[in-house]
């Protein structure tokens, strides 16, 4: 049975059960957060680094969590921001982008022992990697996490209209890439 | 219509090829990764510096960044230099005073008497005795002319020497 967020927060706010509460939070949410991050950064080691940073931020700030939003929405937002920060830092270090598709990413995925996709999956990941970061984020949230535009709006603080536009652009770009037009 | 159906329909209309791709997870993780993650994170959390150390470090970084700007560097250097000089001056004065006290303590009473008899004239005696008496026992409201008259009428040099020494 899943532990309710209220129980996690109560345990975390008590100094004698803080670590226990934090462990409950990690066990409950680590997989969902990991996969969101992993789809953004692709590589397992990078995803692991980003996720650990996310949890350290959560540890440092959970005491100030106001409970005005759902705990998972708050965690999701931190994970997305950390992933974007990571990707921006990586870009500054100079990854090559040709025709909007990151060729280095394709080569890396082909050599990655933790990537088991077939050709169409590889092509899809290459297409996603070539999207601008914001479009990539919106596409992943809708395509894989199946969030409604309203839920995405709560996490990203962006209007539903802007999110729809971003998603449509992203889908069209991927479709063009997949059909080879 | 729930989210999943709505998203599927939207996708098939916008991008039929993408809509036909099997939505599997092509990624995997090392064995037991999730089992070990909470303990690894807790180790990192406990290895963090204390929040006040972070704050101090950040404050010092800001302070140094400001100090090393040219417009602040010269006044800051002048202030530091002044501070060092002032500290050394005070330290020197305090050392000198201690040295004088030490040397005076080494002079014998006989040597002091001889020095006073040989080197003090009448005016010195008057000044010395008036000053010493005023400090010790004479009320402050007695005018100095009256005191001078009193000493001139009641003490000669011999008596004063005996009183003081």
Structure write-up:
The complex is a heterodimer of chains A (181) and B (165). With 181 residues, chain A is mainly α. Chain A has a domain of 95 residues: Rna Polymerase Sigma Factor, Chain: A (Orthogonal Bundle). Chain A is built from nine helices and no strands. The longest helix of chain A is centred in the first third of the chain and has 24 residues. Chain A is globular, with a radius of gyration of 18 Å. Chain A starts with a helix and ends with a helix. Chain B is mainly α and 165 residues long. In chain B, 79% of the residues lie in helices and 0% in strands. Chain B is built from nine helices and no strands. The interface between A and B is large, with 43 and 31 residues.
Brief summary of the model shown:
The complex is a heterodimer of chains A (181) and B (165). With 181 residues, chain A is mostly helical.
Distance between the termini of chain B: 117 Å
Helix and strand composition category of chain A:
mainly alpha
Q: What is the end-to-end distance of chain A? A: 48 Å
Low-confidence stretches of chain A: none
* DSSP strand content of chain B: under 5%
What is the CA-based Rg of chain A, rounded?
18 Å
Strand content of chain A: under 5%
Number of helices of chain A: 9
Ranges of chain B where pLDDT stays below 50 over 5 or more residues in a row are none
Biggest sheet details of chain A: none
Question: Rough shape of chain B?
Answer: rod-shaped
Number of distinct beta strands of chain A: 0
At the fourth level of CATH, the homologous superfamily of the domain at 1-95 in chain A is RNA polymerase sigma factor, region 2, helix turn helix motif
Structural class of chain B: mainly alpha
Oligomer classification: heterodimer
